[in-house]
């Protein structure tokens, strides 16, 4: 089959893309909340304050269903939206390259400010850099993009698994991070200046860690999303039902099995070769579980109840950048020196309960905001940079 490589003419706005982006924000919030609430999160040390069976079960569920899956979903949607940006530039009759370079520069600036002030673990700056690679590859065929994505996934997974085996062979383990947890607890439990110092001071090393741990997989998902956008999967999902069925039948159980191995290692063998090996296995299988989430969402949105879910999530996705930043702001106010300083003071069940409360509030606020505005505040700023002009701020009867 011959695949055309010209820019597809897609609808200006796809509700299912926005809805999936809103869903991705839920998963990202469910993971990021622990980086604020638990100083021992991602540490080989167990939290001595909350160590009950229920506490461990909740952390295990987060590792199983959310960790390493939802940033992949967001990355996939970034790649898909890249093709929508291509189509938007074509409709506007403007050159795509300078437009996208401005957009990535703006995203990098927003990401660095976000990381230095609100959340040192932010990923926007990484997306900004990886987007330049996608920009350079924008003329490749969908099949080639899929091949590159698969190659990256396999390479990353195998490298981490071999690193885990090497660590086991040497009998080594990761150094304790108890001191890091103590520093974080002191900073988040202190004043705003202490919190700001922690975020800004840890940003460089965290960006480096994200590049090593997440960037290759995110780039793979960029390629997968780009390929899906070029053949307009979301514009006409019914054309791809056989493929979607195979993803659910094969991808979901394999992805869930890999997630189970990773979650068990993170819970019961943290910080050493076993967890490193399991992380590599998870990198191999997480894209399959993420793909299953996408397919399940698309199939749900084709049903009558699902259309209501889609309509509820879409405003959140339309203002995804604003909502991502807003999540960090709210979590900062709740758990750090910017506000109440509740770090290590809420039990895991209470922390988990915070997630739907914040998300529900965002759903309501997003719908309310879009009644009077075309874009979220952060989206407006990024669009202004992208088009090198002043976009409309409010709606005017449209």
TrEMBL record:
InterPro entries: Bact_Transport_Assoc (IPR052529), DUF418 (IPR007349)
UniProt-listed Pfam families: DUF418 (PF04235)
Residue ranges of every copy of the DUF418 domain listed in the record: 228-387
Keyword Transmembrane: yes
Transmembrane spans: 20-37, 108-136, 148-169, 206-226, 247-269, 281-301, 321-340, 346-365
Transmembrane helix listed as a keyword: yes
Keywords: Membrane, Transmembrane, Transmembrane helix
Protein name as catalogued: DUF418 domain-containing protein
């Amino acid at each position: 089959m011959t695949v055309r490589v010209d820019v597809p003419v897609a609808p200006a706005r796809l509700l299912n893309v926005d809805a999936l982006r809103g869903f991705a924000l839920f998963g990202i919030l469910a993971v990021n909340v622990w980086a604020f609430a638990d100083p021992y999160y991602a540490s080989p040390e167990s939290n001595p304050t909350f160590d009950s069976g229920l506490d461990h079960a909740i952390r295990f569920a987060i590792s199983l269903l959310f960790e390493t899956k939802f940033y992949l979903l967001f990355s996939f949607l970034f790649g898909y939206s890249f093709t929508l940006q291509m189509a938007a530039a074509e409709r506007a009759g403007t050159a795509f390259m300078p437009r996208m370079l401005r957009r990535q520069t703006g995203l990098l600036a927003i990401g660095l400010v976000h990381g230095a002030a609100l959340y040192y673990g932010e990923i926007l700056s990484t997306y900004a850099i990886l987007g330049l690679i996608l920009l350079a590859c924008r003329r490749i065929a969908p099949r080639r993009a899929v091949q590159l994505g698969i190659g990256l996934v396999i390479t990353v997974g195998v490298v981490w698994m071999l690193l885990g085996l090497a660590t086991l062979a040497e009998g080594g383990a990761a150094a304790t991070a108890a001191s890091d947890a103590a520093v974080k607890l002191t900073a988040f439990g202190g004043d705003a200046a202490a919190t700001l110092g922690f975020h800004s001071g840890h940003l460089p090393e965290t960006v480096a860690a994200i590049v090593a741990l997440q960037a290759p997989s995110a780039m793979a998902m960029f390629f997968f999303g780009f390929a899906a956008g070029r053949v307009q999967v979301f514009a006409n999902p019914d054309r791809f039902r056989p493929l979607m069925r195979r993803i659910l039948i094969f991808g979901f159980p394999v992805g869930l099995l890999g997630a189970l191995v990773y979650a068990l290692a993170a819970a019961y063998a943290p910080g050493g070769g076993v967890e490193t090996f399991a992380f590599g296995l998870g990198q191999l299988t997480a894209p399959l579980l993420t793909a299953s989430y996408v397919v399940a969402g698309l199939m749900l949105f084709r049903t009558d109840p699902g259309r209501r879910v889609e309509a509820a999530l879409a405003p959140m996705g339309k203002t995804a950048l604003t909502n991502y930043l807003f999540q960090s702001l709210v979590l900062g106010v709740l758990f750090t020196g910017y506000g109440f300083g509740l770090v290590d003071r809420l039990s895991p069940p209470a922390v988990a309960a915070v997630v739907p409360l914040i998300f529900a509030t965002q759903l309501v606020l997003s719908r309310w905001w879009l009644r009077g505005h075309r874009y979220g505040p952060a989206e407006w700023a990024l669009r202004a940079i992208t088009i090198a002009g002043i976009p409309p701020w409010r709606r005017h009867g449209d």
